[in-house]
Amino acid sequence: MVGIKEVAKKAGVSISTVSNVMNEKKPVSPELKARVTEAIESLQYEVNPVGRGLKSNKTNQVGVIVPSFNQVYFPAILQGIHEAGLKFGYTILVFETNGNVELEKQHVRFLQHSWSDGIILASYANGENISDRKYIRSLLDSGNRKKRIPVVSLENVLDPGIDAVVIDNKRAAETAVKHLLSLGHNKIAHVAAPLRFQIGSLRLEGYKETLSKEGILVDDELIEEGDYSPASGYDAMMRLLSKGKSFSAVFAGNDQMGIGAIRALLDEGYRIPEDVAVIGIDNNFPSTLVSPSLSSVNLPKYDMGYQAMYLLNERMKDPDKNRSVITLESELVVRTSTSKDGDGTWNLRGW
């Protein structure tokens, strides 16, 4: 394997000169720089990023850990992280946990041991048990004896000391439910996102509080929990229908479950939105392709990723700056699952 010594020998310069050219640490004459560059290209010399990181304490690599590559929610977030990373000079490494906290911890340890400069984490740890709480607290001091590795949380406020980029989930749920109320629905069922996590519990709170403010009694029999997937939305909808309870609208905790709920209602002979209106949260592209198209609350997914990388970059520049939480706003998108006059346009771009 070609090393820096071979480059220096071929260029007829010292090792320190080669290092100065590559790292731009000190000025080098154009003549010497040209000789070193020619030697590097001739020998096809490549820098070992880990070895370089051990010396400089910086690898220009950021790790991103998400629960699933299958959820259509995450690609736009990853795109935002990637484009911000390019702007700030970082390579992005992406890992999947499948919602397994132990696997998540393994990925975090790998990134720490490989001297990554920072971590962006969509965690499945919820702090309900001692192990999770201990793990979350450990993220405050992520790294090793020689290098501190900052963490930015996606979607959840993990700890008062950890930077985060989040959505106002209660507000998003309020937007969805108020839309249904404005259409005259007062018996509204809810297909909830997983309630052991902040996202699901906050959206449930938003649903309940909005109904209560309108003087509508919350019926827990009209609430069924899913796991974000379309299949879980289908199954939750079938459980709601099997109870024989009357409702004229459904608020789903995300679009994928909303699409599953639509399929279940259609299979059981219901007309949408004439018999039952359905709305989700996320505004992912498949919501435009189903029939009827799914009304939703748009979440700024690209911005979430971009802002997470921005926060991480700021933290890496100033490790002792005050902790930051960026809360992003959402907006209603009306399609034909709640109104016959809603937008039926297919989203054919960006995927």
Written account of the structure:
The chain is of the alpha/beta class and 351 residues long. It folds into three domains: 4-47, lambda repressor-like DNA-binding domains (434 Repressor (Amino-terminal Domain)); 57-166 and 301-321, Rossmann fold; 169-300, Response regulator (Rossmann fold, 3-Layer(aba) Sandwich), CATH 3.40.50.2300. It has twelve helices and twelve strands. The chain has helices at 4-11, 15-23, 30-43, 49-56, 74-88, 101-113, 130-138, 169-182, 198-213, 230-242, 255-267, 301-317; strands at residues 61-66, 91-96, 118-121, 151-154, 163-167, 188-192, 223-225, 249-252, 277-279, 296-298, 325-328, 331-333. The chain has a six-stranded parallel beta sheet with strand order 2-1-3-4-5-11, sandwiched between helices. The protein has a four-stranded parallel beta sheet with strand order 7-6-8-9, with helices on both faces. Helix 5 (74-88) runs parallel beside helix 12 (301-317) and helix 10 (230-242) crosses helix 11 (255-267). It starts with a helix and ends in an 18-residue tail after the last strand. The model has no long low-confidence stretch (mean pLDDT 91).
CATH superfamily of the largest domain: Response regulator
Q: Which word captures the global form?
A: elongated
The ordered string of helix (H) and strand (E) elements is HHHHEHEHEHEEHEHEHEHEEHEE
User: Mean pLDDT, rounded to whole units?
Assistant: 91
Number of domains: 3
CATH class annotation of the largest domain? Alpha Beta
Q: Catalogue the unreliable spans.
A: none
List the total number of helices. 12
Name the structural class: alpha/beta
Sheet with most strands: 6 strands, parallel
CATH topology of the largest domain: Rossmann fold
> Radius of gyration from the CA trace?
25 Å
| Cα distance spanning the termini | 41 Å
Q: How much beta, percentage-wise? A: 5-15%
Question: What is the CATH architecture term of the largest domain?
Answer: 3-Layer(aba) Sandwich
Strand order of the largest sheet: 2-1-3-4-5-11
Q: How much helicity do the residues have?
A: 40-55%
Q: How many β-strands, per DSSP?
A: 12
Protein name: LacI family transcriptional regulator
